[in-house]
Design brief:
The chain is mainly α. The protein has 13 helices and six strands. A three-stranded antiparallel β-sheet has the order 1-3-2. Helix 6 (163-167) links the parallel strand 5 (153-158) and strand 6. Helix 1 (3-19) crosses helix 3 (60-71), helix 9 (252-273) packs across helix 12 and helix 9 runs antiparallel to helix 13 (340-362).
């Protein structure tokens, strides 16, 4: 059971409780599931009972008890434990869950974690407005890509844009011009030449236009330039030096792209050995890798909600760091013949490649098959 499937299972439990007359609430359109926090247990936790308590007119713990009975009956769930004021902590059949996760990623490919149009905020248009600053424009561009992946229509406007920001950094906006005084500037990361965050009380027309972008930043090119602006949190000043170009482990962008290239190489080499991927039980695989892949849809949703592509960038680094040791173990060694275990590990490697390629594409960064 993938996190998306588990979310639907939680909603189905709510619907069953409503149909049985145990709860009198409107069934929400979304149930957030995430790794348990401090004091939690199991594979995933949800706060849906706390969300429904007030409209149900019942204490959160009582709502959680009602939902627990329905969740415990669902296929793929082995245990449901209540903690705190009413958190539902869910344990899954790990073997079946891992196979289901890999199969789902391979089915969706680079679009794993995307929200279907029918599930997204159809008809709603999010307006992203940003100042004349290369970092703000790149962040708005990446935020728009991520929002669209979650089924949201987006319109990006900037106070101004330089031709090089489009030709070198690949930025596109829908409108250029001054922002009306009554409209907020919604994308406001620290500029590339700032020593700290821009105070919120400063009006748009008094913020200086950064002077660094045309030289050091643009010399990095599209991929490294965008990464330099997108990887740091919005309040952090980005570094625009050549460290983003070096092909070493110290460079997070290199590790992400190298992990993708290794995953693609595994598929090519497996084809040369005459076998293909087939999702199956996985043994001796670091659980952190599977957890990071399962967390990808939640990260995309959070990055969209908070207009924070840096969350996606750092998540890709987490996936890559967990995947690189595993990718060394995918293929048969010596005279070993390909087995079902190798096909299952190859399927996981291909899933890693799909997640990294899809995430980099949303950041506007290329994912090469060779490095």
């Amino acid at each position: 059971m993938t996190p998306v499937e588990l979310s639907r299972t939680v909603l189905h439990a709510v619907r069953r409780a409503v149909d049985a007359g145990e709860l009198s609430v409107a069934v929400p359109t979304r149930a957030v599931v995430a790794p348990p926090g401090p004091g939690g247990c199991g594979d995933y936790a949800t706060s849906i009972a706390l969300q429904l308590a007030r409209p149900a007119g019942q204490p959160p713990f009582r709502v959680a008890e009602v939902l627990r009975s329905h969740l415990a009956e669902a296929d793929g769930i082995t245990d449901v434990v209540l903690t705190g004021p009413g958190f539902l902590n869910i344990s899954l059949d790990r073997a079946a869950t891992d196979v289901s996760l890999v199969r789902e990623i391979l089915r969706r490919g680079p679009r794993y974690g995307y929200v279907d149009a029918a599930e997204g905020a159809e008809g709603r248009v999010v307006q992203l407005r940003c100042p004349r600053d290369p970092r703000a424009v790149v962040v708005a561009d990446a935020s728009a890509r991520i929002l669209r992946s979650q089924g949201t229509r987006v319109r990006v406007s900037a106070e101004g844009i330089e031709p090089a920001w489009t030709s070198v950094l690949g930025v596109t906006v829908d409108a250029v011009g001054p922002v009306a005084a009554e409209l907020p500037v919604e994308v406001r990361p620290a500029p590339v030449d700032a020593v700290g965050p821009v105070p919120a009380e400063l009006p748009v027309d008094v913020r200086p236009v950064p002077a660094v972008a045309s030289a050091e930043l643009l010399s990095l090119g599209r991929d490294a330039g965008r990464w330099a602006l997108l990887h740091p949190a919005a309040h952090d000043r980005p570094r625009t030096g050549v460290e983003h170009l070096v092909q070493r482990e110290s460079n997070p962008l290199f590790r992400v792209r190298y992990a993708h290239a290794r995953a693609r190489a595994a598929a090519r080499n497996a084809a040369d050995l005459g076998f293909t991927a087939a999702p199956g039980p996985l043994t001796d695989v670091e659980p952190g890798l599977l957890a990071a892949l399962a967390d990808h849809p939640r990260v995309l949703a959070a990055a969209a909600d908070h207009r924070a592509p840096d969350r996606l960038a750092r998540h890709l680094v987490t996936v890559a760091d967990a995947a690189l040791p595993f990718l060394l173990t995918v293929l048969p060694r010596g005279g070993e013949k390909p087995s079902a275990a190798h096909r299952a590990r190859l399927a996981l490697a291909e899933a890693v490649g799909a997640v990294l390629a899809g995430g980099l594409a949303l950041l506007g960064i290329d994912a090469p098959d060779h490095l």
